[in-house]
Amino acid sequence: MVSRIKRLLIGRPMKSTEIEGEKLSKLKALAVLSSDALSSVAYGTEQILLVLMTAGFAALWYSIPISVAVLGLLLILILSYRQTIYAYPTGGGAYIVAKDNLGVSTGLLAGGSLLVDYILTVAVSSSAGTEAITSAFPSLHDHRVLIAVLMILFLTIMNLRGITETASVLALPVYLFVISIFVLIVSGIIKYATGGVHAEVHEMSSAVSNISLFLLLKAFSSGCSALTGVEAVSNAIPNFKKPAERNAAATLLMMGTILGVMFIGISLLAYWYGIAPNSHETVVSQIAETTFGRGAIYYFIQGVTALILFLAANTAYSAFPLLAFMLAKDKYMPNMFMVRGDRLGFSNGIIILGVLSALLVTVFHGNTENLIPLYAVGVFIPFTLSQLGMMVRWINQKPKGWLFRFMINTIGMLTTLSITLIFIFTKFSQVWMVFIFLPIVILMFFRINRHYCNIADQLRINIEQDKPVIKGSTIVVPVAGITRVVMHSLSYAKSLTDNVVAVYVGFDDESIERMEKKWEEWNPGVRLITLRSSYRSVIRPLMKFIETVEWKTSETDHITILIPQFITKHWWHYLLHNQTSILLRAFLITQKDVVIATVPYHLKR
Amino acid sequence: MVSRIKRLLIGRPMKSTEIEGEKLSKLKALAVLSSDALSSVAYGTEQILLVLMTAGFAALWYSIPISVAVLGLLLILILSYRQTIYAYPTGGGAYIVAKDNLGVSTGLLAGGSLLVDYILTVAVSSSAGTEAITSAFPSLHDHRVLIAVLMILFLTIMNLRGITETASVLALPVYLFVISIFVLIVSGIIKYATGGVHAEVHEMSSAVSNISLFLLLKAFSSGCSALTGVEAVSNAIPNFKKPAERNAAATLLMMGTILGVMFIGISLLAYWYGIAPNSHETVVSQIAETTFGRGAIYYFIQGVTALILFLAANTAYSAFPLLAFMLAKDKYMPNMFMVRGDRLGFSNGIIILGVLSALLVTVFHGNTENLIPLYAVGVFIPFTLSQLGMMVRWINQKPKGWLFRFMINTIGMLTTLSITLIFIFTKFSQVWMVFIFLPIVILMFFRINRHYCNIADQLRINIEQDKPVIKGSTIVVPVAGITRVVMHSLSYAKSLTDNVVAVYVGFDDESIERMEKKWEEWNPGVRLITLRSSYRSVIRPLMKFIETVEWKTSETDHITILIPQFITKHWWHYLLHNQTSILLRAFLITQKDVVIATVPYHLKR
Lengths: 605, 605
Known about the structure:
2 copies of one chain form a homodimer.
Chain A: H1 2-10, H2 26-39, H3 41-53, H4 63-87, H5 94-102, H6 104-136, H7 144-161, H8 163-193, H9 213-223, H10 232-235, H11 244-273, H12 283-292, H13 296-329, H14 347-363, H15 368-397, H16 402-426, H17 428-459, E1 472-479, H18 484-496, E2 500-506, H19 509-522, E3 527-532, H20 539-553, E4 557-567, H21 580-591, E5 595-602
Helix pairs in contact in A: 2-8, 2-11, 2-13, 3-9, 4-9, 4-11, 4-16, 5-6, 5-15, 6-7, 6-13, 6-14, 6-15, 6-17, 7-13, 7-14, 8-11, 8-13, 9-16, 11-12, 12-13, 13-14, 15-16, 15-17, 16-17
């Protein structure tokens, strides 16, 4: 039943060799990997306006220079990351680059913040997508947590089905989004140019002069949230079709160009239309409404925006499991993240990502405004570390023309570092959680690593010297009566060794005597030892007896406890049996160094 | 940790031989066993008045003749049950008597309705106790479900500690209740006689003449709820000190007398004071308030009433586990009800009773009015069956003077049968659930019995012919690499037999080749078989391989699958290991007829 539902949702299992077919072409990669970056347009401008609004309407003018600055930053990031792609053709995520050049601890810092960040990507994108929907249909505003969680569930299932299939689903909405935003921008500019908009455009006024540098920086850093997602391409190079580096670099450039144009376009329109952010309608929704009215085109734009935001979360679904896989391979995360599922995706990573981000959405009530700063810090820390790693790499390797490349990465590093610091400085009240969460994650990495190393030490053998040693064998069979199961168990034990002893635990002298007599009659060729339990516990006297056996024979013999166990036909039949055998096994396995053999007896009725 | 909390709540474990010290003296038995019956006084009169009220104030006059009729019924029941006690000195519950004389099915009907009834006893008594509290403190009215459930929890814990200790706790409140109700009745009568009460006593009026027989019968059957609990003594004879029958009979008589006097006293006072039932204050509370005012004595009476009602539930805590034990011994209920816990009580019965009754209270919102009819039907069905059983017994055995005894039981049977029919006839809308629930319970009894009989058939051996047979042995050891655990497992396997084969499941040719090469280098003296898994599943290829081994050797050999298993030091370390071994074991044990031996490897760090 469970497996049938699984088949239906996930699809048939795939062979390991089918993996090459799952690789991405440039256009598909643009769909899968850039939706995160492109969708940032849906909230980037709004984040700037939200901050500027606190200084009054007139301050909204500043959104234009700030947007230009963000654009400049985008250029720097694209150039920096282009270098990373060529330097790390097998996947140059911040984790790899930082670990390679700055040491393990720094690598883990980058990896940890990226992991946290991917979870936030899903949470932010699904929340923002829900806001696009509730802007169009205000009556859904109260159900936004539910909508966001359902979308996360849907994405999780899609990703468990495998990457290519997801890409097919994704491609169309991404292209539609790009087209419709371009249409919106062009139509908006035409409408504005022809004087079709009668908005109160706020000219520079005296009220604006007192705007503080602090506020401007805060608005700038908020705008930088539009840059989140740019790193996705460089992390996912192994998913590209060959030649992977060139395809990845080309995808990155395409993405950067589209993103830049859309972002500046939206910012300009917002300014020209004199739009102020409000908590029930997004800026993009307001622009679309002003341009086209609440008609078919408006709803189409909102729908596509919601779609791409939901699908932006998908970037994290490609990136998180891959990063978790790399961390697990380096023994900083549990092994389970290395297992490919039936459909060749890293199922455990996908599921964990879905669960954690759904949790985050629920805790933050689907409120993007509080999630985005956390998200941006999570992005800019690994940005910075990755650039720093590249700098060290150029200095160490000094290839032809390294100085120019070094300078690009230096500029990149300094810019992202500044933004990180501005974030921390201007929005500490919203991002402090990162400074609690990150150290915990990194500590966990180290603890996990130590555990695996410890185990490897304990398990390692010298194949020259350590060989299997043959010893004697003693088998203890706890019996509760004389039944077919007991006979079966004794047959088994006697087939293996002559040192077999049956143990019976009785609660009173009468039952012990009766058992001894019956055993004698039966005479199965095995010695019976009877124990009396004053406290009506079977386990405790047995454990004591096994200790005695251990003390006597563990030097010369392997000790086996042979436990007969009923396997009932229906699970609820288990309620009808005191599963002493299960309890006994649980006690033995955790506390004694003996082999526990279970003789199953499959009940037929 | 868990076991320390258990110790604190339940007390130290007790030896089986300590059981004699747990037996009850007459006075203690009165406390433990009669609280159910005596506490019925707290709601018996009220149930009559509730029905009569529907015909108007004037109809309340009928409460007096109805109470007298109930009193007559009590006399009949006491005489009947006295005979049962002497006939069944080892415990003459309705289950035993009916099963003995009327056959198994009838016995199970009686047993089933009693089990249901005991659950209802706890639910009704704790709800009624809560009502006594909320009558005194109306502000608690909204929390009555919580209060009732907490009391059930408290009782469950007390009973897990053991019977005698419970008795000590119980004795005082029962005596205090009896004394205070007598004081209340005497004071009330004096007050009424001296004209201290100015109630509108309703004389026979024309309005009453149209009261229907249906209503009178309904009121009468409602009043019979005051008789619930009378059977407790005859069920619990084995708990009495010797001579058990005489002590039990004496206790029964004491109980009957006290109950009768209290019931008729309360009914009289309620009539004289002109008290009408209302949903926020009980009748006893109204009588106490009228007699003493809301002073110390009033609160004392309410407190003691609440206490005895809570403790009435305790009767069921003695009776339910004992009946469950008897049913389990006859293989109609799961074995687990036969196990005596650390403190010699039947812990499983006690816990199940607590859980089910708490559930019932919650579902019925602690509303006694709806629970009591169910409860009464549950009592009068086994009452009737028990009397019928006694009748058959007298006819079959014909001891000296049997005719007189037969007549007593016949009268008893006819009376209780009539009341059962009246209940069904007048309150069908409230008791129909019994006719769904009882058949289910009885069906379950039979299903359980069939299961146990089936198993016994499958397990039975002929000790003359069936002896252990020695066969060969093949051991299969799944290995994932060359480690200390594998070496340990191979040592063990080789010590038992020469037919040992190691199996390795690889996901690609490369890993398989590497493993084969390393195995050759190591040369542990065991053949390695490698399997290739295209679907990255370890379990499926292993299962197939085991099937092949089974097919080849199961005729001549016992097959053992030796599974190495890490035992980590902390439970959360399990998250760090893909527990393929646990999964494999689960698959094997349910699906294959092979012995599964677990070689634990206790990780030290």
